[in-house]
Batch of 4 targets.
Target 1
Amino acid sequence: MKYGIVAFPSKQLQDFANSYRKRYDSHYTKITPHITLKGVTEVKDSQIDSISGAVKEICNHFSPLKIHVSKINSFAPVNNAIYLKIDPTEELLDLHDALHTDPLGGKAEYKFVPHITIAQDMSSGEHDDIFGQLRMTNIDFSENINRIHLLYQLEDGSWTVYETYRLTGEI
């Protein structure tokens, strides 16, 4: 079973991201716009309940997150993906680190760059043309994230929510 942990932004921000994703993101139909907190991790089906318990425990230590989306950026030349840049905060980085412990599959494969993907799987020429247009777009979204979601991948490649957790900061 493949799982991941994400935060979904507000409907307003999802609608904004989808206005680009429906044209430029090959994963548009597989998952709604999201902030990946823990990338795809493969586990046995029998492990999902213990993973869920670990995520719930972590959420008890974190209060709702404030995020600010400030601009459109790109991972090029490493990857031809374009994204909405989320300004990193200490709380967001700490949550990411907490979700990359041994009970949840260990260390992150990549350096954490908080973002919402809006375009991917493009040729270099297509990427350069689209990014050249989009990077001039004025972006300014601020919002609170009070929930994160444990997702799992279905056979058709789409993702669905296994469980939702409140960031309570109770501990």
Target 2
Amino acid sequence: MKSSKLIMGCLAATLGLTAGVAMAQDDAEREAIAERLKPVGELCLQGEDCGTVMAASSGGGDTSDGGGSVDGEGIYNNVCMACHETGAAGAPVRGDEAAWSERTGKGFETLLSHAINGFNAMPAKGGNPSLSDEEVQAAVGYLVEPVMDVPELGGDDAPAEEAASSEAGGAPDDQATASTDGEAAAAEADASGDEPAHAGINGEAIYNQICMACHETGAAGAPVRGNTDQWSARLEQGIEILYDHSINGFNAMPAKGGNPSLSDDEVKAATDYLVEPVQ
């Protein structure tokens, strides 16, 4: 009788130990699977506080110091690669020396200024205004690393500011003329009371300079100009909603197409031209 109890006790202990080992193995396997399935990056939309979070989640550490701890590669993969890996909207592809040769000749500070303040079809900070200048610098450093020497993160930002100021004063003549003519036409329309204030503004010129990069290619999910299927649901919301989205930003689209110098009326004129084929 005692032997039976002893045997039963041993069996119970053995089964308990086996079950514990199996559970531990299951937990380890689940953790390993979760690690393998962990996303490479995170989608960051305008208006979200994404910049510092992305850098931290990618192992970037504290981004408040200038010690080079910002994860430029992680930020690039979340914000910049959509255009700079595909060449969308004419963006130079990372590592393409021919595409970068003229640009790198202007120096890193000029490239950084373009990235921070926007340039041609590229919106300021890649359309993510929550990024700090330091985070943009880290992303730009990763972008151009294959084709030029990159200064250390946290350097003097004055040259970038000077470059931005210089380029702001050297805007293309046709853009300045279009803006001036548009404002004059808008003033006349207001005085007559017959047409909306933006009716006389050259929306096509603004569209070609600011909007076409995405709305001709469908980059970042933008509805393509003239594509009735893509615009049907949007048009049902009414033109005032489309104006609001264009002026204030919506989902991945930055406010005013990433060009805050545009007036609301100029944005409305560009929006009119954008939706004209499908109205």
Target 3
Amino acid sequence: MNDTSLCRPVWSMLNGEQADLAFATGSAVRIDPRYGPFGAARDRSTTAQADLAELVRSSPHDIWLVEPDEWPAPPGTNVVRTAPLVQMVADGEGNSTDPDPAIVPLTDADVPEMTELALATEPGPWGELTHQYGQFFGIRGGDTLAAMAGERMRPAPGYAEVSGVCTWPDYRGRGMARRLIAHVMQAQRARGDTPFLHSYAGNAAAIGLYESLGFRIARTMTVTILAPA
């Protein structure tokens, strides 16, 4: 399977499988801000950079670009932060697992708890509609949503990103994240998708977990966060 779309996942998703979530300005595009802060430009040309600058200026929050290299700030914007990432792909056959009765699909009724968990543990950007990227699953500890995982980017047919993996500190060390990721991966593979994900490059513990689940590092990436100057 050709994975060139993964080199520029935000541009690919917003000009393809998830174009219905895109807000475009000329040759630059961003996702509906209710879903999160991601954006991209067609290239680094003067025209595309000017369009990207307009998107940044009109955005209710900073714009995150996920690219193979740091993206230069267009005139009128500043780089707030950059961070190295690794992009990991699970393109092996995978192993089927028995259903886990503790894992339940999350619904709109769970959104307040999902949001509280995501904002407290910061698995990645979270907006009011982030839960609608795809199906999320959770494990409860009594009445508490203890952990969750779900989906985000679909840059091309046949690829689906595992995302939103987080656990309340009191419930860590019980293997909940592993079980949830495996469950999301199995659901993705059942519909013919290859799972992939992004991790901060310095998070060795998370990368080790992902590798144990069948992910491999496919490429290094960089997140560049832009704001108006």
Target 4
Amino acid sequence: MSHPTTHEFSQYAEVLAALSDPALVPPPPVPVEGPPGASVAWLRGSVARFASGEAHRRRRALVEAELARLAPADVHRAASGADTRSDPRTRVVRGLAAALHMPEPERVAREVGAVADAYFGEDGGPGADRAVARLVALLAPGVVDDTGLEAVANRIGLLVQACAATAALVEAAGDGVPTARVLRDDPPVRVMRRTAARATRVAGREIAEGDEVVLDLGAAQQGHAAPLAFGAPPRACPGRAHALALAEGLLGRPMTPFARLHHQGKALLLPNAWDYASAAALAAEGFEAVGTTSLGVAAGLGLPDGAAATKEATVELAGRLGRGPFLFSVDAEGGFSDNPAEVALLARRLYEAGAAGINLEDGRADGTLAPVELHAAKIAAVKEAVPGLFVNARTDTYWLGIAPERTAGRLAVYERAGADGVFVPGLSDRAGIAALTAALVTPLNVLYSPAGPGIAELGALGVRRVSLGSLLYREALAGAVSTAAAIRDGGPVRGGALPYADVQALAPGDG
């Protein structure tokens, strides 16, 4: 009988192929001895991580349901202000346990710490087994049936898996280093192991049933856009957004009210206004925040859009919007300059006027894209000058039809520079959106398309912000023209106009 062969992969394409191959699964757990709920072996044999086939799908659904109960922003809130004197692993588990409303988060963290090393294959001894039994008793007292025990096992597994990987991310992302940079340059999970559940072929290599596959994520990740640390479908980490929010909270990085809207586990619909009245009317309708449309600002002044002609008008509009009781983000084209210091100065002016966010685009008026390094320098300069301003880094690869295949690479550079979110107008196909969200660390913003997916479906695909761009402004112009024409031609008027008093009431009343 032949012995299993060990295959080592260190190139990005082959590692990604191995992670995506359903035949390659984590090393199977050892057979369980003893009663259920009382050992590390039972835990490993009951969680999604070490399962395959139907058992994996069923257990993964349990984890997804657990995570669906809370938004990443809630995880960030629970982790913020944590006691920094304890070790990162304890802080990670305590923060996640608190967010999930588990009893005695401090005790849960202590017990998970005793289980973690044994869970990942090291010898934890009887102490680790006793810690598992205590966790089961604490999190599911009195539960003895198989279904209930499987559910609590996957709750514990969620905590254990967060323990090491998220703690490593927290340690590596200190001193203000963006987590996106860490995940691509120094991934916290550097090696993964898989076992072939059946014969398969990966990157031209024949892998027999039982063979071991060692994946060097650290070597494979260098210079590539999509982070490998969260795996790939069908076994991609379901808690990716929660882990990132947890790390940011533990690092003491505040999440502004505007940023929080991007971490609710669904898509934020951001309508775009062009003056105070339109912004105030949208806010009165219940929209949690508004953006501005550069086309509306420019056209209202008789100027071209995208030609860096409305810098002062944009600042003045921000000053007017800042008088209102609503959150708003400003479309600032490319920052109205190719000097990062000047863009940072503009960003500070907008922030001081009341803006919660800024859009910076890499498309130029001549139909070309700005050098990626230049746009990244603008982003970094803004984040250094105004850390509390949400920077939405836009790439126009799809909008201008210039090398859409380079979109993920450009966005990865912008994320490394510190972008809080990224925007890809013109991207509307479902497969492209799903592929891009898998490659990103920060929230994805797309432009609404009447021919594309609706808001709920975009949220399910991983989109976290949907802008309306100039649509409302163009609709308003069309409505004004059609109403005037109908009156002139004796036709019916559509009606539905806001009463004079309602429009008058939108003004903040401070002169």
